[in-house]
Amino acid sequence: MHSPRAHGASFPDTMPSDLDLDVEAERVVGPLHGYHVACYSVPADEGFFAYAKVYTEPLSCVWNTPSPVAKYAAGPFATGDLAIEAVVQKCDLDLRQRVSKANRLMRWLARAGRGPARS
């Protein structure tokens, strides 16, 4: 499970101290189908879990970001980096499907607009 998209900018020490999380790794990935993904991994008894938030604008940091358009989670995995790769792949699949659905809708609307005028 290796995706070059999962290797975005690394921000190892940007988490605010008041969150009190044991963060293993942080990444900002994108653009990914027109979106930007902020993700991080944390250790747990079962392994590592990763969490991702998706945004429409580029990010300079994983934390203190605007409201996301979507959130994802993945785990457990053997390492924090594997967990991040998995959550980015999950984002990739879902965002690709969203873009495809939006394109189908736009094509349908375009065809519907060319039909006979209705009174």
Cα gyration radius (Å): 18 Å
What overall form do the CA principal axes indicate? elongated
Instruction: Report helical residue fraction.
Output: 25-40%
Strand order of the largest sheet: 1-2-3-4-5
Question: Based on DSSP secondary structure assignment, what is the total number of beta strands?
Answer: 5
Q: Averaging pLDDT over every residue, what do you get?
A: 80
Would you list the SSEs in sequence order as H and E? EEEEEH
Note the main sheet. Answer: 5 strands, antiparallel
Whole-number count of domains: 1
Indicate the low-confidence ranges by residue numbers.
Answer: none
Task: State the secondary-structure class.
Answer: alpha+beta
Amount of beta strand = 25-35%
The number of helical elements comes to: 1
Distance between the termini: 56 Å
Molecular structure report:
- The chain has one helix spanning 80-113, and strands at residues 9-10, 25-32, 35-44, 47-55, 70-77.
- It contains one helix and five strands; from the N terminus they run E-E-E-E-E-H.
- It has 119 residues and is α+β, with helices and mostly antiparallel strands.
- A five-stranded antiparallel β-sheet has the order 1-2-3-4-5, with helices on one face.
- It has one domain (4-113).
Write the layout of secondary structure elements.
Blueprint: E1 9-10, E2 25-32, E3 35-44, E4 47-55, E5 70-77, H1 80-113
Antiparallel strand pairs: 1-2, 2-3, 3-4, 4-5
